[in-house]
Design goal:
CATH topology: Deoxyuridine 5'-Triphosphate Nucleotidohydrolase, Chain A
Number of domains: 1
Number of strands: 16
Largest sheet: 5 strands, antiparallel
Order of helices and strands: EEEHEEEHEEEEEEEEEEHH
Shape: globular
Radius of gyration: 20 Å
CATH architecture: Distorted Sandwich
Structural class: mainly beta
CATH superfamily: Deoxyuridine triphosphatase (dUTPase)
Number of helices: 4
CATH class: Mainly Beta
Strand content: 25-35%
Strand order of the largest sheet: 3-4-15-10-12
Length: 272
């Protein structure tokens, strides 16, 4: 999870009294926490499907003692949602006298060349961790928000089918009560291991939601799709491109939180 030119948003604890926020509802002894999501896109919005709960497949090992039977593994996936690819994309590094160039490979790639140029951002090589580990960012138009203190964690896919394993998501974590912005799909790609490749329907990244009000984890997240309301647009305007004008944006989290003043972003009727 990265922002423009990799200006990473860190999270710190603010010695600031939280505004009044909604409390989790309780169903059958389990607290249910609603988290809203929306697609911020003027085009292709129908192609971006709902995040899907990560449900590990059943243990198919002969003795039924494989790792998929491990309670710790299955508990890890509780509350994890996958965002899957709406397109197919294969990228290749081409060496030339002018240096390296990253190009799409057709006919595998479903995006047009103009869209690849528009959306696929390869970071300058001096920002890579090593000469063969490219850093790539592709906008992901999903925005998540909550009416109570909840953090989102964005991590790489796990326990799912993937075409290639030569890339890894750059992870991140931030407060979706205080800060509303679309996610980025940022990843490192080991170009020494061949082409980058992802197919339609394969996972791009996982998200998990952590409640600040229920520390023992005895809660269930309910994802609710919602349109872009005026209130949500106003909140996103507060944080739009802020990393391009100021470093250390973590110091702004407390200010952004205080400006909510108990304002709710979720509105009914709800549909998952």
């Amino acid at each position: 999870m990265a922002t423009n030119r990799m200006a990473t948003i860190a999270v710190e604890t603010h010695a600031l009294a939280r505004p009044t926020v909604a409390k989790p509802s309780v169903t059958n002894g389990v607290q249910e926490i609603p988290v809203g999501w929306s697609v911020v896109s003027d085009r292709f919005a129908v192609a971006f499907g709902a995040p899907e709960r990560l449900v590990p497949s059943k243990d198919q090992s002969t003795r039924k003692k494989g790792f998929l039977s491990c309670p710790a593994v299955r508990q890890f996936t509780e509350g994890v949602f996958q965002v899957t690819a709406p397109f197919s994309l294969r990228l290749r590094v081409v060496e030339s006298e002018g240096g390296r160039a990253v190009v799409p490979v057709y006919p595998f790639t479903s995006l047009t060349e103009s869209l690849v140029r528009q959306f696929v951002q390869v970071e300058p090589q001096d920002s890579w961790r090593s000469p063969n580990i490219a850093v790539v960012q592709i906008p992901s138009p999903y925005v998540f928000f909550a009416d109570q203190p909840v953090h989102i964690e964005q991590t790489g896919p796990c326990l799912s089918a993937q075409s290639r394993f030569n890339w890894r998501v750059i992870p991140g974590r931030f407060d979706i009560y205080a800060w509303q912005r679309p996610l980025n799909w940022a990843f490192e790609w080991d170009i020494s291991c061949g082409d980058f490749e992802v197919r339609v329907g394969e996972p791009l990244y996982n998200v998990k939601f952590i409640s600040d009000m229920v520390p023992n984890g005895s809660y269930k997240i309910r994802l609710i799709r919602q349109g872009l309301t005026d209130a949500l647009k106003k909140r996103m305007d507060l944080t739009r491109d802020v990393a391009s004008i100021r470093r250390g944006t973590s110091k702004l989290f407390g200010d952004a939180e205080a400006l909510r003043a108990g304002e709710n972003l979720l509105s009914g009727p709800f549909s998952e």
